[in-house]
Every structure is written in C-alpha cells, then in structure tokens.
C-alpha cells in the first residue's frame, strides 16, 4: 500500500522531457486543427495531425475542456515567447511587431472558438482571460516601445488598444469564409506606421 505522502510526491514530480515534448506536439496539433476546423473538431483529426492515437490524447487531456484550456494556455505562452524572439531576429522592430500580430491573429481566431466553449464556466474563463492579458500585454508593449523608439510607428498607441482592435477585427472570422480578418488586421498594423 502506498501512503499519501508518496502519492503526493509522485504528482508533484516534473514531467520528463519526452513527455513535455509529446504534450507540446499534441497542443500544437490541436491548435492547428482548431484554427482550420474549429474547437469542435473530432479528436481523431487532432490525433492524425499529431501522428498519435486518440488514446494518447485522452491520456494527456481526459476531457475536451482540458484540451481546450491546454491549447489556450499553450498558445498564450507561445505568443509571449515569440515577442522577444522576433525582436531579436527581425530586421526592424516594426517587422517584429507585424510578425507578432500575425501570430496573435492565429491565437485570436482559435480563442474566439475557445471562448464560446468555455462560456459555461464563466469564472474559469475570466481567470484565463486575466492570464491572457497578464502575459501578452507586456509583450505587445515591448514591441510597440521598440518600434516607437526606432521612429517606425506613432508613440500614442497602447498595447491594450492595439490588441483590442485586432481582437475586434477577428470576431466571427472563424465562421465566415467571406471575411478575411487577417487582411483587415494588416491594414490596421500598416496604419500605425509613421508617415513623416
């Protein structure tokens, strides 16, 4: 018989590197399928995208809600990590900002679908939304500040305003093939450039 302390110790142990890689692969696959087909896409489609069986997905994410929350958090973290990487690797801060906004649009298209599914748990959704703002507003602020310091964009725009504007342009994009949110977001991002 295993006592409570031993069991507790096992659950606190960090995941092995291969288990973390497998989970990342599953989350990347689920995000890609959600962007293409919506959050109600069959688990078998996600399994095929990841190159695993459906049992593997259920082992990591026992319910669809677990998978959706996992994808949401994974995409927030990917967006947060991309900001500094793009600033370091892009030819200009404005290019880094534009590339980051493109990634942000992918996340938002998925997020709107996720939001609809998570609305039944309003408190849980509010917690995830606060997490989203806490992680991404500072990243967008750094990108805007770098581009403004370089004289590439106007300096009177806050990260929250830009993110909210992009978010509003993405509403409904996942359900309307006649509406190209990415094209309108590109117009918005072009509009923040300095013309002087």
Automatic annotation (TrEMBL):
InterPro entries in the record: Homeodomain-like_sf (IPR009057), HTH-type_TetR-like_transc_reg (IPR050109), HTH_TetR (IPR001647), Tet_transcr_reg_TetR-rel_C_sf (IPR036271), TetR_SbtR-like_C (IPR049445)
Family annotation (Pfam families): TetR_C_43 (PF21597), TetR_N (PF00440)
Domain HTH tetR-type, chain residue ranges per copy: 20-79
UniProt keywords, alphabetically: DNA-binding, Transcription, Transcription regulation
Residues covered by region (Disordered): 1-21
Compositional bias per record (Basic and acidic residues), positions renumbered to this chain: 7-21
Keyword set includes Membrane: no
Record has DNA-binding as a keyword: yes
DNA-binding positions: 42-61
GO molecular function: DNA-binding transcription factor activity; transcription cis-regulatory region binding
PANTHER family the UniProt entry points to: HTH-TYPE TRANSCRIPTIONAL REGULATOR BETI (PTHR30055:SF234), HTH-TYPE TRANSCRIPTIONAL REGULATOR RUTR (PTHR30055)
Name of protein: TetR family transcriptional regulator
Organism: Streptomyces mutabilis
